């Protein structure tokens, strides 16, 4: 019986990297979800105007930071105040972006309080 030579196994990441097109990953963060959703809509409209394929927006888990502070220092030590800060996050992937899309996204005027991280994957 003749055995056929097996092709070497490659990982999915290596196969994807060999023939993959670049992807633009945009992470958007804000303290208020309404402003965040408006910013994401503006980004999606800009990408769709140039017929770019998009994936998302994908909501990521809300990051919650909490602090507990004493109201008084000496006698009323059991009286405390609790504060929290919520950071809402979304991710948008733009598949094989052309230079026009990238230029349009860099010229966007987004509201203050919205943080954007753009990365080529």
Question: Please, could you describe this protein's structure?
Answer:
With 121 residues, the chain is α+β, with helices and mostly antiparallel strands. The chain has one domain (27-72, 79-120): Alpha-Beta Plaits. The chain has three helices and four strands. A four-stranded antiparallel sheet has the order 2-3-1-4. The longest helix is centred in the middle third of the chain and has 17 residues, at 33-49. The chain is elongated and about 65 Å long. The model has no long low-confidence stretch (mean pLDDT 86).
The neighbouring-strand order within the major sheet is 2-3-1-4
- Helix percentage: 25-40%
CATH topology: Alpha-Beta Plaits
Second rung of CATH, namely the architecture: 2-Layer Sandwich
Largest sheet entry: 4 strands, antiparallel
Topology, number of strands = 4
What's the rounded overall pLDDT mean? 86
Distance between the termini: 46 Å
């Amino acid at each position: 019986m003749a055995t056929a030579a097996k092709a070497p196994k490659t990982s999915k990441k290596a196969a994807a990297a060999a023939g993959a097109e670049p992807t633009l990953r945009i992470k958007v963060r804000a303290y208020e979800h309404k402003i965040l959703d408006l910013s994401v809509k503006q980004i999606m409209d800009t990408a769709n105007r140039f017929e770019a394929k998009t994936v998302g927006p994908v909501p990521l888990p809300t990051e919650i930071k909490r602090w507990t502070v004493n109201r008084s220092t000496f006698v009323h030590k059991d009286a405390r105040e609790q504060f929290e800060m919520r950071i809402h996050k979304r991710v948008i992937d733009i598949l094989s972006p052309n230079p026009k899309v990238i230029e349009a996204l860099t010229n966007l005027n987004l509201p203050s309080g919205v943080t954007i991280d753009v990365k080529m994957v």
